[in-house]
Amino acid sequence: MGEVDLIAEHIAPQYRLAVYLQSGTGQRPSEALAFSTECQRSGFVRVRWQVSAKAHRGDCHTSIVPLKHRTEGEYRDVPAAPFVEQEIDGHLSRWAPVPVAFTGLRGRRRRLEVFFSPRQRGKGVMPTASTFGYHFKKACVAAGVVDVDGKAKYTPGSLRHFFASTALANGVPIREVSRWLGHKSIKTTVDIYGHLGPVRPIMKVRRLGRQTPGGCYA
């Protein structure tokens, strides 16, 4: 079993899908946590919103905000491999989407049917990236995915790097990877990943034959 799958197996069940949205479509943690019914498309996902860092507060009226470096209404489409779509279906078989109302930056009231929202009382409206980070590190330790000091070997951001390195290793042009990641400019992508050639991804996935972001196979 690969490291991504080990983490997914040991994380709190409601966050399993977030692991695969990050590793399979390159979303930031805050973007994955804002995944809603409008994001689910046939063969791809539409990334349009992210969860605010203040979303856990009960008095937060802008719990969901536009993407980083983007204005309200802008989005990006990212190909979704079959295993990502399977994980989405699996999540929906256990948890129905939850309606969340919020005020957009332009003052307009909006409503999304989100996949990640605490069901227990007293935990605010939406989980944040820091909440997910806590569960992610806990899952790494439980799965034995740790460094020599026994601390979590990866962070949620490592899943996004896994997505990018996998795509580049399978021949996807760096300009396309940059668009999928939502970088402000291709220079950012080149600065981070430009040194990568045909290399092995930094994390491993479990089953051979899983489709990778570039439409190739690992």
From TrEMBL:
Residues 1-206 form the Tyr recombinase domain. The keyword ATP-binding does not apply. Pfam families: Phage_integrase. Gene3D superfamilies: Intergrase catalytic core. Keywords: DNA recombination, DNA-binding. GO terms for molecular function: DNA binding. InterPro entries: DNA_brk_join_enz, Integrase-like_cat_sf, Integrase_catalytic, Tyrosine_recombinase_XerCD. SUPFAM superfamilies: DNA breaking-rejoining enzymes (SSF56349). One of its GO terms (biological process) is DNA integration. Belongs to the 'phage' integrase family. This is Site-specific integrase. It comes from Streptomyces triticagri. The lineage of its organism: Bacteria, Bacillati, Actinomycetota, Actinomycetes, Kitasatosporales.
